Amino acid sequence: MELKQHFITTNRPFREGAVEVFQQNISTQNVKKATLTITALGLYEVELNGKKVGDALFTPGFTYYPRHLYFQNYDVKGMLNAENILTVYLAQGWYCGRFTFNNKVQIYGKCPAVSWVLTVEDQTGMHRYYSDDASVKAIASPYEYAGFYDGEVYNQSREQEIFRPVKFTGHVPEIIEESTLHVRIREEMPVQTVTKHGDVTILDYGQNFAGIICINPSKMQDIQLKLRHGEILNPDGSLYTANLRKAKAETVYHKGSGIYRPRFTYMGFRYVELSGVEYEDGLLTAYAIYSDMERTGYFTCDNPLVNQLYSNQIWGQKSNYIEVPTDCPQRDERMGYTGDGHVFAHTGAYNFNTEAFWDKFLKDIRYSQEANKEGYVAPTLPAPPGEQGIGFMSMLGWGNCVCIVPEMLYWHFGTDRYIREYYDCMKRFVECEIRKMGGILGKKDLWIQPSLGDWLAMGRDVKYIAMHNGPVSNAFIVNDLRIMVWAATLLGKTDDAEKYAAQLEKTRAAYIKAFVKKDGTMKDDYQGAYIMALKMVIPAGDLRNKVYTNLTERIRRDGMQTGFFATEHILPLLADNGDDRLAFDLLLDERCGGWMYQIKAGATTTWERWDALRPDGTVNETKMSTDNMVSFNHYSFGSVGKFYYQYILGIQPIEPGFAKIKIKPHIDNRIGAFRGNYKDIHVSYNGEKLHLSTPADTTVILPDGTVHEVSSGNYIFSVKESVNEKI
Fold first, then answer.
1. Is pTM, for the whole model, over 0.90?
2. What whole-number distance in Å separates Cα of residue 329 and Cα of residue 310?
């Protein structure tokens, strides 16, 4: 039986936040095998005889609904009795609930729908199928509201009209495939402090994270309580929520005595405000949630501030790898941002095995891209039809994710699969870039149009960076062309390789002519322009040396003044050019505009703005359009994590998938001894000796430049004398 034929909804007129509940009575006997196959346009959660089926959250997942949908299979044999009750909760979710920074509803469809087939095989081999027949009924829903932004209002005792199931007549995607990658509850987060503040209680969990609060009113009957979530407190100790914008981020629990777990929402928070009842131990339990991914990288050192920054970027990833690479988990946004995603992609792939996560998001890119004739890749994905098109922020720096991520996956995971599967997507995007060259200013071989540039850089107004985005935007084009030459060569596409190589040199020359002066200063004089030019455009030679000298002069004078894109590259660029001391100066800088400033201010995740919390303690509520824009859990500036792995530990691939490895640690006595690993590659330094455990052939480059070629095994190197011994 095909799922496409069995989608049902109810005859309820659309109401934002409504949750439908379906129930089916099923009789079984002599069961040999039982599989529940289920999907939804929206979100579903299913129970069998009162117990949740599976442990995944937000199923079936977030996809480009016009083309693509996931389903799940569950082995439910062990949950079946002779008489059974199947209960399906259906929420609006991303499909038609309130979503995007425009706070729209019914983006992909008019109402949610669900489809399931329970296949039961008895001991004789006979199969019975249970789906949307006359035995399915709609029952009273305990939800007054459920949505990602506002939270949930749960009321077990409310009176309501009961609607009836009807056949779903809306569009069903062409592609429905099984998914095993899910968001799940990952970690219990113990409360650190509980403080009474007037009529409410403030709970501090000590860590900003994305998650849910479960309510267990075991000692209370028919309680009514409200939970409000926030990232920081006001100076008077009350909950700060202004940065949530139109998101309420609340849980309201009415008239219930059973354990309650939010099904169809999550929050980004460190603090919770409890009202309605007095707090008691065991009443509330917090859990962090994030997508399936195995931890693969670790780091620690003697400097507690450096350790805290490492922890902050880890928690930034946990909080924002939820179905898609979101920007933030707390406000009315939480969308899959391509720019934020690729900026953090290398760091994220060291922290966790993210291959399956990116495999899923690349599908979102493909299906969204195929829906437009231009070939652009939107800044937020999956992109609603007609939304986030080739507008103000639609292209450079964001859409380049389609080229950058497949290359990252090649080096981290040792497979050309993503180059092969997404080559056409990469090519369509680059062809779109080439067609757009000339732009409104008519500069041949360059893309000169409005874009966001090195977003949220310190030292410059965002409008200046946007209107002078050329050095950043066109650096991405040069990088895309380089990737296309490499990818075409890898796949044996000689004509494409030659074509893009020629365009690469034209655009590189046009870039240097348009943006770089002969004395090595950038015409648009901000750090991001220098860094992106050096990282992606200017070849070795006298001009590059001049540009680099000008960059380091500005860094020494101004500190770090980079935005989302240049930040990823600033420390590696300095270290690659022998300026280790300056790189560590920036890493350890406690002035506003640096990572350690955030740590000293109490941050437990990286912020959206370097000065999200100003030195005077006020929140930077600078408005973008009509709303403020400040998040205390944005992982873009957490891209510094790559520096920890590739430069402090020194772990870099020489061959794809780390089949051959380079170990080149960068040591600074201000961080002291350190140790860490990426998968089975372990590196530690105790102040005198470097310990290495490697699973493959490895080139070891010690700080004094001494090179050692070693095979798999365990080694100790004397850093001062550059002597190694195999143990």
1. yes
2. 19
